[in-house]
Hints:
The radius of gyration is 37 Å and the shape is extended. The chain has helices spanning 49-60, 94-101, 106-125, 154-157, 167-170, 176-179, 186-202, 212-221, 236-245, 257-273, 322-348, 363-372, 431-440; strands at residues 5-6, 10-18, 22-29, 34-41, 73-78, 82-87, 92-93, 138-140, 146-148, 352-354, 376-383, 393-397, 403-405, 409-415, 420-422, 444-445, 450-454, 462-466, 472-474, 478-487, 509-517, 525-533, 536-545, 550-558, 561-568, 571-579. It is an alpha+beta fold.
Amino acid sequence: MIGDVLRVRFELTQLLSEGPIFTAYAAKDRVEEGEVCVRMIRMPYASDPAFVARLREVIAKQDYIDHAGVENLRSVDEEESPFLVSSLTNGVPLAERIRKLAPFSVPVAVSTAISLCEGLEAIHSAGLVHGDVSAQNVAALPDGQVRLQLPGVWEAYSANSAAGAVLPGMAPYLAPEISAGAMPTATSDVYACGVLLYELLTGRYPYNADTPVSMALKHATGTVPSVRMYNPSVPAVLDEIVKKALAKEPERRYASAGALLADLRVLQDALRFGRTVTWPITPEAPSVSPDPMPKTVSMRKEPLTSQQPRMRRDRQPADVPLFLIILITVFGAAAVTMLGIWVVFNVNKPSQVKVPNIVNQSVTQARDLLRQSKLHLEVVQEQPSEQVPTDDIISSDPPAGERIREGGKVLVTVSSGSKMVRVPNLKGNAVDQARSILKSARLDLDDNIEQQRSRTVDTGLVISQDPSSGRKLEQGGKVKIVVSAGKLTDGNPDEATSNTTPPETTGKSSLYTLRVKLSGLDHPVTLRVDLVDDRGTRTVYEQPHDPNETVELATRGTGAEVVFRIYYDDELVKEVKQRADQRSGGNAP
């Protein structure tokens, strides 16, 4: 549809996105000479008059929303097919930014959440609810701010039974009461904002499931997970803010986006100026109970008068129906039974113990220490660390000093060592052995394995590798290997390099020798020798060696003169020139 002009006014210029209900285009408005967003309504919704009419009603209620953080929905027009016109947002879905960059730093995540809450506050102040806050419905702008898309459009979904197609995208952000059948409210928008803040800080949802129904069940029954379990750099106060936004009961959440915004701004200022913030940031208002009795009560006994007849001992029975008396009796008995069960359960409940400090200890030591406190250790995540040695504890949840019941679990994050690891030497090993060696070093083998004939290496064994042994590579990186396809015959010395170098172009092949003494070293290095001749540059030797070893090698070169380049751990240390009439080497420093 690119190039089409709708209503002789909106020229479609670019496809922006495709969703279950709308296909969005950037368009040029020929009347107002600006750019807008045109969302074509997809089938079967475009042919449903009730859906289109409901969508018009939704947009008509948004005249009072004027905020840079909220998309301005202008009108629903019709030509051959109905379409929605709105302001154009020059940004990308926040979901894409989270997928590529999360977890974000604490200041960036807080700033993004503040921008999101400012837009929500504008919607709530207009007496409306967004109803579909999600990473896909929030645009990340180039200036670091965000903009809420399609505010209030959820109200039109109920007009068409097929609109359930949006449920998979909404499920990770739906508050428990919405999944139970309640209508969206300001507090359910706050819940979705809490999910987004959790995503920004950890790069994952607070709950994961395979189906929308399973996801809703986890939101309703699962314990609110701590952000610090997956991102220990998050301050404890921010962790509490997220937990409050994700509270199961609406009355325990922030009452509005403005209340959440206030706490986030206080935290942002504290981060900016290095101040300490304690929880709760905003003290909860004390509940006010009505005065059940008058302030003064007269206790003087008044004499009876003729107008105050003496109470009879044989009082008339109250006018209470029999079924109500039975009902009260049954409920009273049930309450007593439940109270008894509660008492028994709490009397027999395990005692609480203090979580010991296991940070910076090995998993084995930490498990033994927790066992002494009748607690159990569970490793939930491995994380690279430049400060904490491999297999030592980086953080625990609950942290040291908190009290939990005996038999409880302490969830820990364990160091997988430095992010950069040294590449092991794979030469001379079979492919399966090389893969196993790399796995133990937290590296992977590149599946694209080259084969090359060799004069010295048996079939199926590694001839060379890239990167070379001793070099550093990030954990999970891949190492490429060349495997021997069989030995070369002695009758054709030039065949050794036929697969890796171009054929001879000029000159005659001559045999050159080189002697290298590894002097001036205090640690083992990988010695590499490259030969430069008329055929180009190629590696003729690469092996690890100890200091003061002497290496002698012989190779053939083409041309009147060749150059040997000698490297220690990929660092050039010397060049040695040889002429064909000399053919004798020197020592490397």
